[in-house]
Design goal:
homodimer; eight-stranded mixed sheet; 15 helices
Amino acid sequence: LETIQKITIIGAGSWATALVKIFSESNVQISWYLRKANDVSYVNEHGRNPGYLSHTMLPMSYIHPTSDIEEAIDFSDTVLFVVPSAYLPSTLSTIPDGIMDNKWVLSSIKGMIPGASISASEFLNQKLGLKKDRHAIIAGPCHAEEVAMERKTYVTVSSLNEEFAGAIAASLRPSYIQTILNNDPMGVEYAAILKNIIGLACGIAHGLNYGDNFQAVLVSNSFIEIRQFLELLDPRARDLSESAYFGDLLVTAFSPFSRNRHFGQMIGRGYSVQAAQLQMRMVAEGYYAVEGIYNLSRKLGIEMPVTSAIYRILYNFISPFLEFRLLEKKFK
Amino acid sequence: LETIQKITIIGAGSWATALVKIFSESNVQISWYLRKANDVSYVNEHGRNPGYLSHTMLPMSYIHPTSDIEEAIDFSDTVLFVVPSAYLPSTLSTIPDGIMDNKWVLSSIKGMIPGASISASEFLNQKLGLKKDRHAIIAGPCHAEEVAMERKTYVTVSSLNEEFAGAIAASLRPSYIQTILNNDPMGVEYAAILKNIIGLACGIAHGLNYGDNFQAVLVSNSFIEIRQFLELLDPRARDLSESAYFGDLLVTAFSPFSRNRHFGQMIGRGYSVQAAQLQMRMVAEGYYAVEGIYNLSRKLGIEMPVTSAIYRILYNFISPFLEFRLLEKKFK
């Protein structure tokens, strides 16, 4: 398993499209599953994804789009899931029994399964009966939009199986990509989930007209909250200052590309959750993350002031103005 | 020493003006030393500082501007120094011997003394023969511009003398200000100095057209560099995730108000150091910080890849493009 020659990529969003671009430019043959037959025709005809990163030309000699999930999975030994966490259960339910046996599985989903309080990786492991040494995750810090622009981007590949992670990392070769290896997939995945909550919180603060001085304090306090949560959820030595954890947080909290931040901003300005979701067209992963992490924090018996405040704003419809006034007093 | 009634503030820049605003709105009587007699007349006549935050109306019934430093210092028992670190030596040299004896000293200077590789506080302590328990620092995370706009801002007061820090904190009372107490003035001061280097580095990266993905990795790696430096310089237990350290870094690295970031951006775009300084009118503290910290890092025998790269760019005129290409490979 030196580098991979073929891969199946399941997902049609912007990050899926960015990964299709990266793998295809690394000369990996790709079976690309897009749910809608229309999208498959469009990609075949135009060499671009009509819905996301739609200006990005993809090298079609490496890309085989299909809306037949069984055909897609049969194509290779390595299957990469990159769909919004909310759609992962329905996606898995369309996969015939048994065809995922003995596959290597990658996932690049930074979210919680709605209503289940488990991460995408945990869900995949449960549903596919996957062994942990046949699974790796691909993480940030990055925005798909900057991959499309070919701006320098670091991609983290994390697995308990270091050989597998190494093979994947070695298969990501465009000059604008640099890979980071990591052996703490649970920590990296949860840090990515939690950072979406911070991105959302920063957006709400911005929508409420707080400035940079406040945002710095909000992020500091949220970072401490993340650290305490991870220490309880999965205790092990990890340096949260590394790019895979901390960098990922920064790119979401401060970047104008962040969907979670954008969603939060609308909430802060007084949009209802429904109106904000309608207007965005995309799913803000942070919305489901808040519910899952909030429930987990209660199970673990840990105080998470920022997460709890965002939970009450989004799910109990408490005024963001009021919740942030209360948060102000708790910060240090 | 419950709260203070009177204070001497030495400095005419934007952060000095912000502190004059905060103390005066807390009903503290202020003797405000401005070096130029013209500025004193202007403040007296218009109630605004002509040079910095010039739209901010100051409550003049609490403010007594003067260009006589002896008169300013005689006014109160507490003297706050808030001048650029580069001007601190010349400012101190104008103070007659003996009149600072038995004063309480505050400083809010986030920089290194040019050519000396010591911080502003260390310089004050040496020159004034100051006892450490008569000294406190006022730190961020904050930009003066947002204080002027009265946006929610957290101010850190740090001293080895907790009673003194408490008295100062209790004297900062506007509703938009919240205070954080801290007893690690050296750590807070050096974190503030180091963050200016990161701000500068982020600016250079931006000027070189790197995006948010790269910036996140740059800040993560810089943060690890700061941590290792502080652990060697002054080992003690401290949580760098707290606002006083980490928040201060964030506000500089990511805010458009940051002078260091702005200065760095011009360097990244190909301005010479001199041209960038001329165009900015303000001193970017990071410029002196880089030299001081670089020299200290060599004394301490610690590798600081980001600081060293910025040093070579600013002082040895190595191409920023080249230095960042080399940094790219070192990051993780």
